[in-house]
Design goal:
- 45% of the residues lie in helices and 14% in strands.
- It has 11 helices and 9 strands.
- α5 packs across α10.
C-alpha cells in the first residue's frame, strides 16, 4: 500500500468525559465520522475529572493527563494525537515526548483562519479565559493576526446543557453573535468560537457567518491537519523540529514524569 492508502488511527483527546458529556460525545463522534477520510479511524478519549471550571489551574491539571495520554497513544500504535480543546493545554509538551504528529484545536484553527482573512477574533465561553487566549496568541506569534478576544459567560459544563435543547442552543447562538459583532465592527474579518463545545454546537449552521465574517468550526480543520501530517510523515519523514521548543525528552525522563504525579 502507498502512504495514502494505509489505515490511519487518530486519538482525539477531549477535555470532557463520558459521564458529564451528555449528548455532546455522541454528536462529536458522529461529526468526526463524517469528517475523516476513508481508512481513518478516530477514537475519542476523555479526561476525568473533566474540565468543568474555567481556570488555568484546571487547564494545567488536564495538560498533565494530555501529555501522558500522548505517550500512551503512541505506545498503542496511533498515528496522530489530536487535542480537541481550544486552549491547547499541554500541546508543546506533548510534542516533546512523542514522535507521532500532535495537533491541537486552538493552534490549528488560528493558523487556518489566517488563510480566510487578515484579522481574526475569538469569542470564548468565559471571561476567565481571555488572558489565557492572549498568552496563547502571543506564544504562536499571531498578535497581529488574532487581534481581539471577547467572552460570553458560561462554565464549560453549563454550555453542555445546550446540546439537545433547541431553546438553549438559540440563546447561546444569540449571545455568541452579540459578542462577535463588535469585533467585526472593529475590523475583525474571521470569528473563532473559543472551544470545541461551541464549535460543535454551531456546526449544524452551514455557512455560519456574522455580518460577513465567517465563523470557523475548527474540528474538521484539526482533523484534516492531522491526516495530512500523518501522510507527510509517511511520504517524506517530516516531523517536528527537535532543535528548540520540541526537543525530545529522554525515555527515562518521560517515564519519571508519568510515574510521579505528586499531590498533598
Amino acid at each position: 500500500m502507498t502512504g495514502d492508502d494505509r489505515t490511519m488511527r487518530i486519538w482525539y483527546q477531549s477535555f470532557v468525559d463520558a459521564p458529564n458529556a451528555g449528548p455532546y460525545w455522541p454528536m462529536l463522534r458522529e461529526h468526526l465520522d463524517a469528517i475523516v477520510d476513508p481508512g481513518t479511524e478516530i477514537d475519542v478519549h476523555g479526561i476525568t475529572p473533566h474540565d468543568g471550571y474555567a481556570h488555568p489551574i484546571v487547564e494545567w491539571r488536564c495538560a498533565r493527563e494530555v501529555i501522558c495520554n500522548a505517550v500512551t497513544a503512541e505506545e498503542q500504535g496511533y498515528d496522530a494525537f489530536v487535542i480537541g480543546h481550544f486552549q491547547d493545554a499541554g500541546l508543546y509538551e506533548a510534542r516533546s515526548v512523542v514522535d507521532i504528529p500532535v495537533l491541537s484545536l486552538g493552534e490549528a484553527s488560528m493558523l487556518h483562519a489566517c488563510t480566510l482573512g487578515q484579522r481574526s477574533g475569538i469569542v470564548t465561553i468565559n471571561r476567565r479565559y481571555i488572558s489565557w487566549f492572549h498568552h496563547q496568541i502571543g506564544k504562536y506569534g499571531l498578535d497581529r493576526r488574532v487581534t481581539g478576544v471577547h467572552a460570553m459567560q458560561f462554565e464549560p459544563g453549563q454550555i453542555l446543557a445546550a446540546y439537545g435543547d433547541a431553546d438553549r442552543t438559540r440563546d447561546v447562538t444569540d449571545l455568541f453573535a452579540q459578542q462577535a459583532r463588535p469585533l467585526v465592527a472593529g475590523g475583525v474579518d474571521v470569528i473563532l468560537p473559543g472551544g470545541g463545545i461551541p464549535m460543535l454546537l454551531f456546526s449544524a449552521i452551514n455557512g455560519h457567518e456574522i455580518d460577513g465574517a465567517p465563523v470557523v468550526n475548527g474540528i474538521p480543520i484539526v482533523v484534516k491537519m492531522a491526516e495530512m501530517a500523518v501522510r507527510l510523515r509517511r511520504l517524506t519523514g517530516l516531523g517536528v523540529s527537535r532543535a528548540s521548543d520540541f526537543a525530545k525528552a529522554p525515555p527515562e525522563i518521560i517515564a519519571e514524569f508519568r510515574e510521579n504525579p505528586k499531590g498533598l
